[in-house]
Design a protein that fits this description.
Length: 167
């Protein structure tokens, strides 16, 4: 799924994506290890090569953030509110061009986006923010939070700010 404004790839249906309140797609994330690839050639290490002290430490990363090369960004509550206001106008314009006379879908977006925006702003300190790979500030900011268990991360993206990518 591509950001309708920047064309950054933000999410894929290869993840378990669920629609929430008609305006958000959520997908659970997982922490994965990258790096530290051990290659066994089957040969014995010679005495002088036994321990070269190479640092092959693994790095724990969020699978969705890593896969789509999302870039962390930060906001204070006021600046995020201002960003949201401008972003919603862009999405509304995109929907009006794409949907044309589909007033029901546009109304669903308006009501649902207002409600979800209020939820995010109400729990602002719990969210992390990411831009797409291009780091274009005009595009969608991907939201990351944790489920009620406090352990499982998930991302939230605006359904109406996406366009499908044909593979």
């Amino acid at each position: 799924m591509l950001d309708a404004i920047t064309d950054d790839e933000l999410l894929s249906d290869s993840y378990d994506v669920k629609e929430v309140d008609g305006v958000i797609y959520e997908a659970n994330c997982a922490m994965i290890e990258i790096g530290a690839v051990q290659v066994d050639t089957g040969a014995n290490a010679s005495a002088e090569e036994a321990d070269e002290g190479t640092d092959d430490t693994a790095l724990k990363v969020n699978n969705i953030v890593h896969s789509f090369r999302l870039q962390p960004t930060s906001f204070d509550k006021a600046s995020y509110g201002a960003y949201l206001k401008g972003y919603m106008k862009k999405v509304l314009k995109y929907l009006q061009e794409k949907e044309g006379d589909n007033a029901a879908e546009i109304e669903t977006f308006k009501k649902g986006a207002a409600a979800f925006s209020k939820k995010v702003l109400g729990s602002f300190k719990d969210w992390e923010f990411y831009t797409g790979e291009s780091m274009d500030v005009d595009g969608m900011v991907v939201l990351l939070n944790y489920r009620e268990d406090g352990v499982t991360p998930y991302v939230a993206v605006w359904k109406h700010g996406l366009k499908e990518m044909k593979v």
